[in-house]
Structure formats: C-alpha cells, structure tokens
Design brief:
10 helices; Rossmann fold; 10 strands; single chain; three-stranded antiparallel sheet; alpha/beta; 14% strand
Amino acid sequence: MSQVRVEHADYHRLNFLTTRPSTLPRPSVFDSRRREILSYMTQPERPYVILTVREVAQGKDLRNRDIEEFEASILLLIETGHNVIRLTSHTNNPLQLKSPHLLDWQVTKFGKQGDELALVSGASFVVSTTTGIDCLALAFRRPVLYVDVARLFYVFLGTELTTFQMPQVTDWESGEPINLEQILERGLGFSKNTQSFVDARVRIVNSSPEQLASVIREYISTVSSEYPPDDDALQGRWRELVLHHLRDEVTARHGAIRARMHPATMRSHL
C-alpha cells in the first residue's frame, strides 16, 4: 500500500462516477490488511459501516461535532447487523462507547499508512459530516450518507452514490424554520463559510443524537427497498430549485445532479 499514489485529484470533479470504473486499486488489493484490522472485532464477517466525523477541536465550523452525539447511531447500526468503524487519522476525543462490533480506529496511532484505503474500499457505506474521507469512499464507488449538511458546497452532487440530509435552518428574528428555497434565496446554497449564515441572520440547528439515528435507520430502509412512488418527483423538485439558483456553479463542479436528498430532508425542506 505504500506504493499507492493519487495525483491531480480535483475536489469536485466526481460527476463521472456513474459512467467510469474506478482507477484506484481494486478493493481486493487491500484484503489482507482489511482482514487484519477487522479481526479486532468479534464477528469480522459482518458488513461494516465507516463513521467519519469532523471534531469540535478542529475549530468553529458547522461540520464539527462531538463524537458522543453519534453513539445512538452507532448502536442502531450494530442492532441492524453491522460492525462500525469510526475512522480518523488521530483524535483527542476517543469513543467512550464500547462494543465487540465497534472499532475506534486511529490510523496514526494503531494503524499503518494506507489503512484508510483498505477500510473505505470495503465498507457497505460511509456516514460523514463532510470530512474528506467521503471523497475517498466515492472514488472507490462506496455509497455515502452525508448528515447535517448545511452547505451543499461540500456535497458531491454528481453521483447517485451520494445521499444527503440537511439540518434545520431557522430565522434569527422569527425563530421559524426556513426551507431549501428560502435558503437558496438568501444566497446560502453554495456558501463555503460558516460566517455566511451569521451574516444572513439564520441559525443552524443540528439533529439530536436520536434524530441522527432515525436518519440512518431510514437511509438503510430506503436503499434496501424500492423508493416510494413520489420519490422521483420530489428529487426532481429540489434539483430544479438548486439549478434555478446555482446552475453555473453546480454544472461547472458536478455536471448533472444525480445525488439524492434524504427523505427526512424532503419532508422538512420542500
């Protein structure tokens, strides 16, 4: 794995994921190292999910969360038959939750160079607060669920491998929630900076631990069965809204929109 090298990787240009095979090493290349890491869990043969969360210690950013907020989600994933790997380079905030089906893997502390490739390439899916590891997952054609994404700028919109859920956004003065169309009208759809939301006088209300677990439960249920009859129309509705306000930016970065909005967000933001 020390010979793997990625060059000239564009942050956004993943709009070809549905039409081209991955040019990264085949997941089987990493089988031996993956089995070695998974052997730390009681039932390594179970399908596993990668959890990747930007930490509060990384500064004031809407994406930064306390890992304890995801304990209910971890337990939910374990209850549904998955192993869970919280994947970081290193952390000063290790999980306090313990389970034979849970691994808190710090690559620089416990692992080897390239462990991210070995683990992400074999995951059933990845749950991310937009950390960067989700980029690697998509390059390996692994599905990604983005949770509490307030800024579509960080979401890869050009592939159906992506599903995203948005937090509640409320108006500071009225305290009332605002929907996707209102978010876009305030110029926040493709905002990169946290300060933009302060300037626009809106507040981000992230999901509670229980709500995060519910989002993941519904995601598992949705992707393992047929989408509801009105799903295509609702997906088309938010895509049209985004293109109406951000056509040039989105087209330049992602091409056609293929990502899916999580059902919970369609209920609250459309």
